[in-house]
Amino acid sequence: MLKGSAMAKDLPTSPLAPAQFPNLLPVAGVEFATTATNSRYKGRDDLLLAVFAEGTEVAGVFTRSKAPSAAVDWCRAALGVTAGKGVRALVVNAGNANAFTGRAGKATVEAVAAEVAATLGCAPHDVMQASTGVIGNPLDPAVITAHLPMLAGALGATAWDKAANAIRTTDTFPKGSCRIAEIDGYPVVIDGIAKGSGMIAPDMATMLSFVFTNAAIPAAVLQDILAGTVDRTFNCITVDSDTSTSDTLLAFATGQNARHQAITSFDDPRLDDFKVKFEEVLLELAHLVVKDGEGAEKFVTIRVSGAEDDRAARKVGLAIANSPLIKTAIAGADANWGRVVMAVGKSGEAADRDKIDIDIGGQPVTREGMVLPDYDEARATEHFKTRDVQIDVALGIGTGKATVWTCDLTHGYISINADYRS
Amino acid sequence: MLKGSAMAKDLPTSPLAPAQFPNLLPVAGVEFATTATNSRYKGRDDLLLAVFAEGTEVAGVFTRSKAPSAAVDWCRAALGVTAGKGVRALVVNAGNANAFTGRAGKATVEAVAAEVAATLGCAPHDVMQASTGVIGNPLDPAVITAHLPMLAGALGATAWDKAANAIRTTDTFPKGSCRIAEIDGYPVVIDGIAKGSGMIAPDMATMLSFVFTNAAIPAAVLQDILAGTVDRTFNCITVDSDTSTSDTLLAFATGQNARHQAITSFDDPRLDDFKVKFEEVLLELAHLVVKDGEGAEKFVTIRVSGAEDDRAARKVGLAIANSPLIKTAIAGADANWGRVVMAVGKSGEAADRDKIDIDIGGQPVTREGMVLPDYDEARATEHFKTRDVQIDVALGIGTGKATVWTCDLTHGYISINADYRS
């Protein structure tokens, strides 16, 4: 049954992967450790424990799935109790999603939280959890708890690549991003890691991602920043239109070594640079998730303008990005722009067929609903053969706009998923 | 650019194709002829002309795409003029969808209708049209009109296989169905043909299909029968979640040799058998479309029960049927029922994770949100290796139910679509 475990190791690194894992700076107040449980994956780290300084605040967004994992239920409930104040730990395991595991799943997250709380001397609801991997298999809490003493004894602040590696499932490379923002003229660090390669569609956080900063930002403000940013980043990517049961995005603000004055409002202009850098981190992570889309060979940017409003533009963009016919055409370097029209039509959003302008790789293809006489298909085909594909669609209806990102649909996707688990 | 034309001929017949084209009886009042225009496809028929006796009535349902083809626009407008009375002809070409062709596309359908009308001595709005194939290429009306005199001189009532063949694009086999219904104790024939293998998703007729009967049924009644039946047949199939710009389903009732008394109401109990047989024809055609899904190797039936209502059940069923992760798991004979839970969750319909019952191939897999201790995964895997895959999902919420049909997502789909046009 565990053929997938061997395969996950054997998957070649995505051709869209960055040359190397970026340099993530330490975040004051964040320490972590990883280990290999040797349960689903053999010989590689698959368990992450992060421990936070007292006073750390947390914000979270989660899958909109009606069948969320036990860990998602746990986090939502814990945040309901603490309002995001005083979080002390994050535990992430890869290989088993602890989803659709019924009462046993709930018992597992309770047992893990209790054990972490005992180890660190905090309350169970100060422990955040996330699980990713196969759905429907019971997760023995001992797989996690047996390693807690060792992890708690091995905490450090620098091995971000190991943290990013430990949360991978079929990801072919670890994903991280780092920025330095200024608040009151003082620098704060923002680090992020993410995992996710299949079951990626925008209906909330769309995978696992954790962002850490030493800025001192109250949970309520952090939650507003997070929610707004997600709509322009993780909610604008799609790999296969499938929504995970486990999508979790948590942001932790330790407030350690943060020399800026207190922040109390989302609208505080002193947060401007932080918001920009925070969004850069999330966008970079979201792009990395797409670039590791299962079987992805091309990174596709779809810009929609002239829609009724921004929401409509995003819906049109996602209709294009989720179309198997468009994604396979890109895989085959077939500049089949007719399929773009099809996707605009099926989105259900307002469009006037005879006003749709399409550009491929910056080259105008159609104007006023007709292909241009001097459209050079060979040039569009050449563009579709590159790693970075750009499609622009102007609807000519209003001023709404959005950018979404996806990857092509290749034989690799079929191979990986026809064969992932058993 | 026309690599697709060679390829279309070379595609191997779907392994799910029936052994042979069924025996379709003649329909009194329907004559037709086919020919090869040698435009997109070389050496095979790609143009169909059907001519109807005076007094024939027609009903139609069309794509919900916001960017419909010129032929769809034409039919909708013509039906608006005639209310479906007195239709005389149907022209169908394959290879060029005449969609997103702007003013030129409109001029083409007008020219074709005028020429057919002149040939037959009827009004242009008595001519129905459908086009299928590549989107965005102008369609020269001469491709069609040059052949009209020959077609009008070659009309016959029996070569249904040729008619079904002439409307194919990437279809690997012709699709037909025939039933005999009784009205007032007198038999009437119902014949149907269809095409469609990609860009198949329920948002109306989802492909081209034409149904012919010699029953005498007023257009308004025929329209009600058609609309209700489509929701349980063509709107319950999906291949790739993409919606065509050209989907067209037309039903023609000639009234020739129909010895039954006049029908004036949809609720007339004398129509009961006709409705049953009409639905059988549409269902058979819809199943054949799925069985010719691009790259399909397995026919998948998904039955959903216990939903909030029938609409919710269909939405859950389609979320399962459209999930690339489920479709690839079926292709790989991986009984990954966790992905079914994922799809239920993402459908957005009411569900209680801890009440979901899943059966695979008749074997209970989960009850009350947990996998059963005696679930035999090897048996489920064996079932997934067969050509007919059955997944049952009981939500335990209400009494809504629906059945939807789809196929697996294979390397064949990628090969066909990465390479269809250019």
Question: Can you give keywords for this protein?
Answer:
L-amino peptidase D-ALA esterase/amidase; 32% helix; 422 residues; ArgJ-like_dom_sf (chains A, B); 24% strand; L-glutamate N-acetyltransferase activity, acting on acetyl-L-ornithine as donor (chains A, B); Ubiquitin-like (UB roll); homodimer; six-stranded mixed beta sheet; autocatalytic cleavage (chains A, B); Arg_biosynth_ArgJ (chains A, B); arginine biosynthesis (chains A, B); alpha+beta; five-stranded mixed beta sheet; 13 helices
Overall residue-averaged pLDDT value of chain A: 90
Q: N-to-C terminal Cα separation of chain A, in Å? A: 4 Å
Order of helices and strands of chain A: HEEEHEHEHHHEEEHEHEHHHEEEHEEH
What is the radius of gyration of chain A? 22 Å
What pair of chains forms the biggest interface? A-B, 76 and 76 residues
Could you name the CATH class of the largest domain in chain A? Alpha Beta
Count every helix of chain A, treating DSSP H or I runs of 4 or more residues as helices. Answer: 13
Count of all domains of chain A: 2
Large-scale geometry of chain A: globular
Query: How many strand units of chain A?
Result: 15
In terms of quaternary structure, the protein is homodimer
Q: What structural class should be given to the helix and strand makeup of chain A?
A: alpha+beta
CATH architecture of the largest domain in chain A: 4-Layer Sandwich
Strand arrangement in the largest pleated sheet of chain A: 13-12-11-14-10-15
**CATH superfamily placement of the largest domain in chain A:** L-amino peptidase D-ALA esterase/amidase
The main sheet of chain A comes to:
6 strands, mixed
Assess the beta-strand content of chain A as a share of residues: 15-25%
Give unreliable regions of chain A as ranges: 1-9, 201-206
Helix content, binned percent of chain A: 25-40%
CATH topology name of the largest domain in chain A: L-amino peptidase D-ALA esterase/amidase
Function (chains A, B): Catalyzes two activities which are involved in the cyclic version of arginine biosynthesis: the synthesis of N-acetylglutamate from glutamate and acetyl-CoA as the acetyl donor, and of ornithine by transacetylation between N(2)-acetylornithine and glutamate.
GO molecular function, one term (chains A, B): L-glutamate N-acetyltransferase activity
Family (chains A, B): Belongs to the ArgJ family.
Subunit structure (chains A, B): Heterotetramer of two alpha and two beta chains.
